[in-house]
Amino acid sequence: MTRYDNDEERTFVALPPAQGRGFAQTWWGRAWLKALEDAAMDTAQVKTGRRLARAGAVGAVSVRPGRITAVVQDRDRTAHRADVLLERLSDTQWDRFVDMAIERSAHVAALLDRDMPPHLVEDAAAAGIDLLPGMGDLEPECDCGAWDHCGHTAALCYQVARLLDQDPFVLLLMRGRSAGVVLDALQTHGSAPGKEAASRAEGVDAAEAYATGQVLPPLPVPPGLPEGPGVPPSLESEVAPPPGVDPARLALLASLAATEAHRLLADALSRRDVGPEPTVAQDAVRLAAGDPGPDALGRLGEGSGRTREELAVAVRAWRIGGAAALSVLEEEWPVEGDTLARARAALDSAWEEDERPRLRARANRWTVVGAPHQLRLGRDGRWWPYREEHGRWVPVGGATRDPATALASAALGAGDEP
């Protein structure tokens, strides 16, 4: 096999903009970005770098042992040379890495497949070899003069995460060995394990499965909607049907099932926009709604900045309507312009003139004068019923487009007259 020089340099052409996708799809790509995001002193610079990388402002990336380099353009098209340094492994560490890898056929097979399973990285770390960078291991250098990670070096790191997704050997080159040298060493010293790996039983190594248990792959692209329902197979046959089976009725049932399946798929695809990812505070409520136990509830409340009572009310809202109900509970926003006009029109038309309750408005909340009932308007135009309990406003039902229905839910929930 051809041997490669350890100082090999690889240059990757500029990648296209990354709108609509994450920068790291693999677990090792995400670990690379975590080293950047955990160590950067200025999170604003990290966000700037992410925007620059997403916009395609990072030029060709040069990778060589101990250093990555690229030219990054600011929004005003000013170009800066950005470098990120990563400590090279010593020859002794590389020897230990090869010895460690050939001890397990799964390691050799994974590397031959351009894969980097978690158990390989864990075994390397146990042998004193840190393949992935940790906090502070990515050292920035930029001609803009920043002493810490700037937007340019952060953009370079985000772009490299995409390269690592494609080929984890990019990381090994940064650590000091090219793909050719690593594979040459593995095949020279571990030809027998390599053959064993080729015939190993199907499945996933238990250590790898455990290590990746919390790393979820990206969701697949939603399926497209066919133009119409599928056509069930023909039931015409020269064989007589069994007693009690009517082929015509069975064909009709299959056709109706196909039509219903098409309708359900169309409905699901029309609602596939699930909104932004939940915040930490929102996710704490979601977890608390699963009744994790008193100790966990205490930690969730403390971590999300809520008292035990506030967390209980937030859980109540979540169980009623998820993130939308939680937003209505905890966010007060001004109702103005067309939104205010539509709200007033809905309130005016909800009751007859002599039956309309007196409402006192504040922001998106309308409180019934003289009664412990309240209406809250969500940003989607739906009304949520609230009732005052022990000096605190709590949700008592789901949202509806009709404010009168929502207010009746609040009154009936308390046993009052609607």
Helix and strand topology:
Blueprint: E1 10-12, H1 27-39, H2 43-54, E2 61-64, E3 67-73, E4 79-85, H3 91-102, H4 105-112, H5 118-126, E5 139-142, H6 151-166, H7 169-174, H8 179-189, H9 191-198, H10 206-211, H11 247-270, H12 280-288, H13 294-303, H14 308-330, H15 337-350, E6 359-362, E7 365-368, E8 373-377, E9 383-389, E10 392-395, H16 403-413
Antiparallel strand pairs: 1-2, 2-3, 3-4, 4-5, 6-7, 7-8, 8-9, 9-10
In the predicted model, the low-confidence regions spanning at least 5 consecutive residues are 1-6, 192-200
Task: Please describe the biggest sheet, giving its number of strands, its sense, and whether it closes into a barrel.
Answer: 5 strands, antiparallel
First CA to last CA: what distance? 85 Å
Range of helix content:
40-55%
- Report Rg: 30 Å
- Write the H/E string, N to C: EHHEEEHHHEHHHHHHHHHHEEEEEH
Treating each run of at least 4 consecutive H or I residues as one helix, how many helices?
Answer: 16
Tell me the fraction of residues in β-strands, as a range. Answer: 5-15%
Strand order of the largest sheet: 1-2-3-4-5
Backbone structural class: alpha+beta
Shape: extended
